[in-house]
Amino acid sequence: MKKQKRFTVLLYNTQIFCIAYDILYVGVSVKRNILYLSMLFTLMIGMVGMAFITKIGLNLNAQKSDNVQKCEVISFKKLTPDDISLMIKWFEQPHVSKWWPILAKDEVIAHFLKRIRSKDTFGFIVYLGGKPIGYIQYYYIDAAGEKTGKYLPEFPAHTIGTDQFIGNPEYIGKGVGTQMVKAFIAYVQQLEPNTTTIIVDPEPVNHAAIRCYEKVGFKKVGTYETAYGACLLMRYDL
Asked: What domain range includes position 161?
């Protein structure tokens, strides 16, 4: 393909040179000069067009490369004891431990075994194109309870909360988080069809997470103090 383009450009340049030589040195008739000038103008326009089309092609290829992961299927599998070793590995990643509680190996095992047995919190491994890339969970909001909701403003009765992270560092900063949350919202509506509102509560300084949620459609509610520190409450109404 590159050889063909080089040959075409060479042919254009040769034709332009020949026409220019005829006009300047051969002394052809005025009528023929006009014809040659027309041809020269057409050839120059053709070269500009080729350059423009090549640039567009390169841009499209770059965009296609950036969006490859977004085209792959995102799916969710309920968390099982077999996934805990993967969770331990992910919790050791700096980009995860920065925002999630730092737990020892035994604590991770106990924490997620509890999640697996829970009746109000439900965890899932996130897959992209069949490859595990992260974790996501949703939980029921009990506005009067001690576990969750004590610090929250009033929400509709069928409100759930969600938390997530990308465990595999290869997928950080590539727009996968936004696609993951969007896909999970659609998925959780099948599991909890009465849900009216979904909330998230990232730390106010976790700007990457906040931008991700805003792209999905979450709206800022306000900053609240919790047992774990300050959080920025955001909501998504279905």
From this structure: 69-237
